[in-house]
């Protein structure tokens, strides 16, 4: 079992949201090991049916315990949003502490569910980071299969391929369709494949709408669904003016490299260094790794990208409270030289007191002009994204 970075405060009730398969239940069982915990698993059809028909059974079962539980866990709470009214009441009257897991807050928000108005902190759980995997981390495997915890338990490529393909289909059925987030399944299924094919690129809502046979507003709502179900995130364009006119549309990154490859049907394709496909996979991996660590460590770095209309681009701009803005280029090369640092070097004059980095697979740290070219793991540490 991997030791996760996330560490919710035990002095307060909390939500733990994360996509299916990220290990929410496994984490909580480890986190509360040795404590008196009462567990309600809403993935159990009988338990879900009972609490759906008789929500007060929650209160009755808690009251029936010989010893007051230290924690009450409700797994996949979005399946019965009305339970949150009872949770709210119990927090106020019985001073119980709740850990509430879910794969999405979307159903809760759309249904006007009681989100406990600050009485429970919100935490997110993602696939494994390289820090959590420690010595078991392998970049080649991470780029090909992603880092969902289940992947580390599978031994053959065939098993991993079948798991990721089934995972993608499960989300279609259980998270999106079964929860009534969409009205029609076929266009959304096509959208997922197109979104995976354009992963890490600037989102062109009009072109995607044409490809999937839907209108632009529908496609925009599909991206909102992916964000709300924690299947990915939008990287917004840099928001401040610089000398050159900038692009205004966001980029989208799926939450896991392996799931993205399952959705766009490229799992059988071998990733070879020094190819554009490998370079995109490496960029994708490092972007989501930064997103995960920024969230876990509560750094509150504001992440964005910059692309001018004449084609000059910075992969990532990190506005760091209390520290200089970091301009980051991501290169999959094993040898970084002036050609890789030229663009980010040219933008330094547009950012007051900024620091520029190139993160790559080059094992030799160096400084080229004003740019720090670092091995990607060392670079993350230098930027401030390691525990």
In terms of topology, how is this protein built?
Layout lengths: L12 E6 L5 H8 L5 E5 L3 H9 L3 H7 L7 E5 L7 H12 L3 E5 L3 H5 L9 E6 L4 H4 L5 H7 L11 H21 L7 H13 L7 H8 L3 H13 L3 E4 L15 E4 L2 H7 L12 H21 L5 E6 L5 E7 L6 E5 L7 H10 L7 E6 L5 E3 L2 E5 H8 L4
Parallel strand pairs: 1-4, 1-5, 2-3, 3-4, 10-11, 11-13
Antiparallel strand pairs: 6-7, 8-9, 9-10, 12-13
Helix pairs in contact: 7-12, 8-12, 9-10, 10-11
Descriptive overview:
The protein is an alpha/beta fold and 387 residues long. Among the domains are: 13-125, Rossmann fold, CATH 3.40.50.300; 130-224 and 256-277, no CATH class. 40% of the residues lie in helices and 17% in strands. It has 15 helices and 13 strands. The strands form three sheets. Strands 8-9-10-11-13-12 form a six-stranded mixed beta sheet, sandwiched between helices. A five-stranded parallel beta sheet has the order 2-3-4-1-5. It has a two-stranded antiparallel sheet with strand order 6-7. It is globular. The mean pLDDT is 91.
């Amino acid at each position: 079992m991997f030791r996760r970075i996330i560490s919710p405060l035990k002095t307060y009730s909390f939500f733990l949201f994360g996509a299916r398969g990220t290990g929410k239940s496994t984490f909580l069982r480890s986190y509360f090991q040795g404590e008196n915990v009462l567990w309600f698993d809403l993935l159990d059809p009988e338990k879900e049916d009972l609490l759906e028909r008789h929500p007060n059974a929650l209160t009755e079962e808690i009251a029936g315990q010989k010893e007051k539980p230290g924690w009450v866990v409700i797994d996949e709470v979005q399946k019965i949003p009305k339970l949150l009214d009872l949770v709210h009441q119990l927090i106020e009257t019985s001073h119980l502490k709740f850990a509430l897991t879910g794969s999405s807050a979307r159903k809760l928000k759309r249904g006007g569910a009681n989100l406990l108005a600050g009485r429970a902190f919100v935490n997110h759980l993602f696939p494994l980071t390289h820090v959590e995997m420690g010595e078991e981390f392998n970049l080649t495997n991470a780029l090909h299969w992603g880092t969902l915890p289940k992947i580390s338990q599978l031994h053959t490529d065939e098993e991993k391929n079948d798991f990721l393909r089934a995972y993608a289909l499960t989300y279609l059925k259980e998270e999106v369709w079964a929860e009534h987030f969409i009205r029609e399944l076929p266009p959304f299924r096509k959208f997922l494949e197109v979104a995976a094919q354009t992963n890490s690129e600037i989102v062109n809502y009009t072109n995607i709408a044409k490809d999937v046979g839907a209108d632009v507003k529908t496609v925009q709502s599909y991206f909102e669904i992916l964000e709300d179900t924690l299947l990915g995130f939008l990287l917004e364009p840099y928001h401040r003016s610089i000398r050159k006119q900038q692009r205004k549309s966001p980029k989208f990154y799926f939450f896991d490299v392996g799931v993205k490859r399952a959705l766009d049907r490229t799992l059988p394709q071998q990733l070879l260094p020094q190819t554009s496909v490998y370079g995109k996979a490496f960029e994708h991996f490092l972007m989501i790794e930064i997103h995960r660590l920024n969230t876990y460590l509560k750094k509150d770095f504001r992440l964005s990208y910059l692309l001018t209309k004449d084609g000059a681009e910075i992969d990532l701009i990190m506005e760091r409270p209390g520290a200089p803005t970091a301009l980051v280029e991501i290169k999959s090369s094993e040898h970084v030289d002036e050609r890789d640092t030229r663009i980010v070097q040219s933008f330094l004059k547009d950012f007051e007191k900024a620091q520029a980095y190139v993160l790559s697979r080059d094992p030799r740290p160096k400084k080229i002009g004003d740019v720090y070219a670092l091995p990607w793991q060392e670079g993350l540490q230098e930027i401030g994204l390691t525990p």
